[in-house]
């Protein structure tokens, strides 16, 4: 396989964004895989691929990819929120709640705050954040 140019990676990334917007997560993943292979450190590409996995209901792959993003950018509120949504869809609400609350603590976005349910701190009998 010929080496990819930086331009090709940018074009594929932008095309993957468009495919995701058009609700074609599998097409987006196909374009992003070689971008990430060429640049595994590219957090933006990994975050986009995680979103594509989520939209394609590939929850375990989405979870792993969101975790990579969070390891590299622990203050990425969106990644925490998206991981929480993934965990919620995977029927893991206790794990999800932790990430909803981290997202809201990092960014007081109204959607993040609503999902965090800070007002319900004692509702499950679990203490601490």
Automatic annotation (TrEMBL):
Keywords: Repeat, TPR repeat
Natural source organism: Streptantibioticus silvisoli
InterPro entries: TPR-like_helical_dom_sf (IPR011990), TPR_2 (IPR013105)
Protein's UniProt name: Tetratricopeptide repeat protein
Domain of life: Bacteria
Pfam families: TPR_19, TPR_2
